[in-house]
């Protein structure tokens, strides 16, 4: 049974960083996102949130340099693994600081410290602490992060991959993915036709036109985002997921309060 009060929200790396410039946060956007979340919670105090965010220009540049997503085995690759962790951790702190400054009771749950995987499939993740945080009206914050992997040595577990695992255990009512695009384009990169709705059964017809990402994105950009979210829906058929733009002021607050923005993904 779905938790009607629980939403998962991702703040995309393209939204909160400049993905074309290494380790560059969009502080003004981060602050506005935090204020809009706080405003939505003020209007609907019963709302519960798990907030995730991408690594954008922080983790992805180092990850591409060292090939971290594909596996970590050599001493140089393990040094890269630590560098990717450091860069992603730096952005995570900026996100936490912005959310806390808006008065939000946030706590970080980094995958690198609590998750192990096998070829990016979660082997172990004790989620009881996240559940306890939600029960006490706290906001767990997760992020795209490095993880130790029994097959690959090390790799990167995207926010979407983490949402996939958590959705079947926490049962959110909706998942919201806020980025810079107004939704899923049918004809990326021309970007003239926006899809209102992507059904699980229709995905094969639109997959080739999705494109990837305008910046450095080692986890696959829009293709990975949509594919992984449809995997979530396949496992949780009653779940609705929306991909929308957080660039327009007020959009995030409206989406949190139920507005039907962007592209809907559903069964």
Q: Name the CATH superfamily classification.
A: Acetylglutamate kinase-like
How many β-strand stretches? 14
Give the distance, in angstroms, between the N- and C-terminal Cα atoms.
16 Å
Number of domains: 1
Helix content: 40-55%
Order of helices and strands: EHHEHHEHEEHEEEHEEEEHHEHE
What is the overall shape? Answer: globular
Please identify, by name, the CATH architecture: 3-Layer(aba) Sandwich
> Biggest sheet, in brief?
8 strands, mixed
Instruction: Please indicate the percent range of residues in DSSP E strands (runs of 2 or more).
Output: 25-35%
Roughly how many Å is the radius of gyration?
17 Å
The top level CATH class name:
Alpha Beta
Which SSEs are present, and which pair or pack?
Blueprint: E1 3-11, H1 13-16, H2 27-43, E2 48-53, H3 56-66, H4 75-101, E3 106-108, H5 111-114, E4 115-118, E5 121-125, H6 128-135, E6 139-143, E7 145-149, E8 153-157, H7 159-170, E9 172-179, E10 184-185, E11 194-195, E12 197-199, H8 203-206, H9 221-235, E13 240-245, H10 251-256, E14 263-266
Helix pairs in contact: 2-4, 3-4, 7-9
Walkthrough of the structure:
The structure is a single chain. This protein has helices at residues 13-16, 27-43, 56-66, 75-101, 111-114, 128-135, 159-170, 203-206, 221-235, 251-256, and strands at residues 3-11, 48-53, 106-108, 115-118, 121-125, 139-143, 145-149, 153-157, 172-179, 184-185, 194-195, 197-199, 240-245, 263-266. It has 10 helices and 14 strands. It has one domain (3-266): Acetylglutamate kinase-like (Carbamate kinase, 3-Layer(aba) Sandwich). A hairpin with a 3-residue loop joins strand 7 and strand 8 (153-157). Helix 2 (27-43) packs across helix 4 (75-101). An 8-stranded mixed beta sheet has the order 3-6-2-1-9-13-14-12, sandwiched between helices. It is α/β, with parallel strands linked by helices and 267 residues long.
């Amino acid at each position: 049974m779905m938790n009607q009060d629980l939403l998962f929200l991702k703040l995309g790396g393209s939204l909160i960083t400049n993905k074309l410039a290494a380790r560059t946060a969009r502080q003004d956007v981060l602050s506005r996102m935090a204020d809009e979340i706080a405003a939505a919670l003020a209007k609907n105090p019963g709302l519960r949130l798990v907030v995730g965010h991408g690594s954008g220009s922080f983790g992805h540049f180092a990850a591409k340099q060292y090939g971290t997503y594909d596996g970590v085995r050599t001493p140089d690759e393990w040094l890269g693994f630590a560098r990717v962790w450091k860069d992603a951790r730096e952005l995570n702190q900026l996100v936490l600081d912005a959310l806390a400054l808006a008065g939000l009771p946030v706590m970080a749950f980094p995958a690198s410290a609590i998750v192990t995987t096998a070829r990016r499939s979660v082997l172990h993740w004790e989620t009881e602490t996240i559940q306890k945080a939600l029960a006490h009206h706290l906001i767990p914050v997760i992020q795209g992060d490095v993880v130790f992997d029994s097959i690959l040595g090390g790799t990167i577990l995207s926010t979407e991959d983490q949402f996939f695992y958590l959705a079947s255990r926490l049962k959110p009512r909706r998942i919201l993915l806020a980025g810079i695009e107004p939704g899923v384009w049918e004809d990326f990169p021309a970007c003239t036709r926006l899809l209102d709705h992507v059904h699980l059964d229709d995905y094969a017809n639109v997959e080739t036109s999705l494109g990837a990402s305008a910046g450095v994105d080692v986890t696959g950009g829009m293709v990975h985002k949509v594919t992984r979210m449809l995997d979530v829906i396949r496992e949780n058929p009653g779940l609705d997921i929306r991909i929308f733009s957080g660039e327009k002021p007020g959009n995030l607050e409206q989406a949190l309060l139920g507005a039907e923005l962007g592209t809907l993904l559903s069964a």
